[in-house]
């Protein structure tokens, strides 16, 4: 089967892409390395906030579902900067991770033109006007277009002290698609984020 669009990655971006694509295409495939993590939120599951809530509203206007998901799964909401001018008011939701994920699954699985597959893509190739994806079983997936929503999972590293681990998120795999990108002349760069170190003090020994 030749798909109109194949989306790699099933986080926020992958889910929004698959839902939007399903409205204009009749064959969409969503590939994720772990179905258990489909639509999973971070350990601090908040949606919106200063500098972010307007993005959720813009996404909703464009046909996105994050606003709908947040309304369904929220357990607390707050208007930030409420005592200041209306131009800087900002809505933030705290949402239930399980409700959020379950609602995503419900929406995705009732879409008959979205095919969801647990798999890992190892290579991306171009052939004429088609995109060829090769998975970990050396099976071929053919699409007219691909949308890459891999987040922090492409050739990524985590540094903890002096130790360096090749993982995308703690205990999650990283995938080396960088070589494939270079072969099809896609620009590659990396971003860095930092989490403040946790200090472990043995008070009994210290005092």
From TrEMBL:
The record, for Pfam families, names: GIDA
InterPro entries cross-referenced by the UniProt entry: FAD/NAD-bd_sf, MnmG-rel, MnmG_N
| Protein name from the UniProt record | tRNA uridine 5-carboxymethylaminomethyl modification enzyme MnmG
What is one cellular component GO term in this UniProt entry? cytosol
The prosthetic group or cofactor this protein requires is:
FAD
* Keyword terms, alphabetized: FAD, Flavoprotein
Can you name the source organism? Cacopsylla melanoneura
Which GO biological process entries does UniProt record here?
tRNA methylation; tRNA wobble uridine modification
């Amino acid at each position: 089967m030749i798909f109109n669009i194949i989306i790699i990655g099933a986080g926020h971006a992958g889910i929004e892409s698959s839902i939007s694509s399903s409205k204009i295409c009749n064959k969409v495939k969503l590939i994720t390395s772990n179905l258990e993590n489909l639509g999973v939120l971070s350990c601090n599951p908040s949606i919106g906030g200063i500098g972010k809530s307007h993005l959720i509203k813009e996404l909703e206007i464009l046909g996105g579902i994050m606003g709908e998901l947040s309304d369904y799964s929220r357990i607390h909401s707050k208007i930030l900067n409420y005592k200041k001018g209306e131009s800087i008011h900002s809505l933030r939701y705290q949402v239930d991770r399980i409700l959020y994920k379950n609602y995503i699954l419900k929406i995705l699985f009732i879409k008959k033109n979205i095919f969801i597959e647990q798999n890992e893509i190892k290579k991306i190739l171009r052939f004429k006007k088609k995109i060829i994806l090769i998975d970990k079983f050396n099976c071929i997936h053919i699409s007219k277009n691909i949308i890459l929503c891999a987040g922090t999972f492409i050739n990524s590293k985590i540094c903890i002290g002096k130790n360096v681990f090749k993982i995308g998120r703690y205990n999650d795999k990283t995938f080396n698609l960088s070589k494939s990108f270079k072969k099809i002349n896609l620009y590659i760069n990396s971003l860095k984020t930092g989490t403040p170190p946790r200090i472990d003090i043995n008070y009994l020994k210290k005092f």
